[in-house]
Amino acid sequence: xxxxxxxxxxxxxxxxxxxxxxxxxxxxxxxxxxxxxxxxxxxxxxxxxxxxxxxxxxxxxxxxxxxxxxxxxxxxxxxxxxxx
Length: 84
Hints:
The protein is an all-alpha fold. The chain is built from 4 helices and no strands. It has helices at 2-16, 24-38, 43-53, 62-82.
């Protein structure tokens, strides 16, 4: 089921063309897929560690956006795992 959703996501991206501007909300399914495929064992602990010891990551900029997207992907994956 997850592979079908990913296929639809990739197809939608490809058909939009190179000049289309993607929002983070559009790309979240792709980020979630990559996060799951990375199989990082203790991702939640790693995210909390970065939050605690590298507060500059949460400031403005591209790094903050990437970290926020990673955190959102992780939270969504946890939410989907807990629902039947």
